Amino acid sequence: MIAENYRKVLERIRSAALRAGRDPESIKLVVVTKTWPVEKIIEVIEAGARILGENYVQEALPKIEAIGDKAEWHFIGHLQSNKAKFVVNRFRMIESVDSISLVKELSKLAEKDNTQVDVLVEVNLEGEETKSGVMPEKLSELLREISCYERIKVKGLMTIPPLFSIPEDSRPYFRRLSGLREDILNLNIPNISLDHLSMGMSNDFEVAIEEGATIVRVGTAIFGERK
User: What pLDDT, on a 0 to 100 scale, did the predictor assign at position 227?
Assistant: First the structure.
């Protein structure tokens, strides 16, 4: 069932990309493995999944230990500065950077390990108190601050819109993030590359692709509803 669902999601990604006149290969699928055990994750890897996403450090670490280099990992949940030491060198990308204090800690760890950390900056488009992310009006200021840290490589932006029952209702949020990306690119901030827009989940990823998503984060449509 997991393998079949995974293939269906890939086909939906392909169809959405073609509708938008885009190359399906330009879109990365992050399979969200939050709450799912290693045996289920192995199933989706055997079906072809190459990027896995986790929200919680303490849940992710034993999975990474068990699965090894069979897949790359993205950290997609809120990351506290005191947990950063567990993330550097284990996750290929941190999709949820939203503060300069976290960037400072990541930079210090990257310097120590002589590595670089690829990140996306999370944007809280609605200013929802229950969600992490920088406010849109503070985005350029944060990116200018991050640009001073040579070990931190900003690769794009991420957002989580409000959860709607109708996927089309998410479109304005995806369109807004895409517009913010263009605004920031016009500022030519050094050391900042915005190749990626991570937006869209199980309920609305096709709409996100139509609005320019290069990364979609899908769990429920592959594994089923979480218990």
Answer: 67
**DSSP letters for the chain:** -HHHHHHHHHHHHHHHHHHTT--GGG-EEEEE-TT--HHHHHHHHHTT--EEEES-HHHHHHHHHHHGGGSEEEE-S---GGGGGGTTTT-SEEEEE--HHHHHHHHHHHHHHT--EEEEEEB-TT--TTS--B-GGGHHHHHHHHTT-TTEEEEEEE--PPP-SSGGGGHHHHHHHHHHHHHHHTTT-TTEEEEEEE---TTTHHHHHHTT-SEEEESHHHH-S--
What mean pLDDT is reported for the chain? 96
Query: How big is the CA angle at 133 (ends 130 and 138), to the nearest 5 degrees?
Result: 125
The mean pLDDT value for 41-55 works out to: 98
Reduce the DSSP state of residue 156 to 3 states and report it.
strand
Name the band, by pLDDT with cuts 50, 70 and 90, for residue 129: confident
pTM value is 0.96
Q: What percent of the chain has pLDDT over 90?
A: 94
In the chain, domain spans: 2-223
**What is the third-level CATH fold of 2-223?**
TIM Barrel (3.20.20)
φ, ψ at 125 (rounded to 5°): -65, -30
At residue 128, the pLDDT reads: 72
